[in-house]
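Course assignment 3, question 2. Fill in each field.
Student: A.L.
Task: Predict the tertiary structure for the chain below.
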Amino acid sequence: MKRNTVSLLALLAVLLVVAYLVMQKPGEQSGSGLGSPLLTIDSVAVDKLEIQSAKSHIVLEKRGAEWYLKEPIDYRADQMSVGTLIHDVKDLEVRNVVSNKPEKFPIFQVDTASGLLFSIYEKGVKKDSILIGKMGASYTELYVRKLPSNDVDAVDAAIQYQLNRGTKEWRDKTILTVPKESIKEVQYQYGDTTFTLAYQDSVWKIGKDVATMSEVNTILGGLANLQADDFIDSTLHPNPKISALISYAGNQVRFAYLKPQNKYAVQTSASPQWFVVEPWKTNSILKRKKDFVKASK
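Answer field:
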């Protein structure tokens, strides 16, 4: 029995050594959960964000109260996306320290050659920089390294999806936004055909016909917050043939059907920028007179 006990203890010791060595292999967790904040930032003071990889360089900067893309194009940014990123970065907590060995940086992709570099500025001064690496085996955690530390930390993987946005995703896709209640008249023009949808005597009408409220509510919602799917930054040659015009609340919106792409190019009187909008969106607002009055006949 004594010999068996000694043998079992020896086997247990061997297993413990093997387990320790396995835990030290690249890519495996070798630290313990910490739960401490990765960064300490002042959300109000943050005025610049920089996201740099081998394929792209995105710079977002605050101008007054609003965020703008500065690189690779100068354009108003999606305010909600920027705000969400700052909030989520501030809330990042270190789950584990998985390594502190520089020779393992490439394994976790937190070296300067393969990692995505994210820098945060407060009041014009760089506050923190972190290298974003690869996901862990569970796909719920992400390996990062706060510079100049050698610690490779595991954090919530969701932040990777935000930082890997392309330029298009950072741009504000708003074509036109107006208060819905400010729209009292909508004029449609298709070539030589025109008609006006107007709010008269507490009802919406087209001429003497009372309009169908379900259709009115649909187009008012779409026109109040008209959003794009993509951008057209090059000059269109030849100029697109306008297939429809909608005028409302002091604005004119031009629609040009792009047959090869089965999409619409859209431009407003407020800006020279052309946008791309999918047909399912335009179909909800490009209505004909019969669409509004069919239930009244």
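Instructor remarks: The radius of gyration is 28 Å. Residues 174-293 form one domain.
Grade: pending
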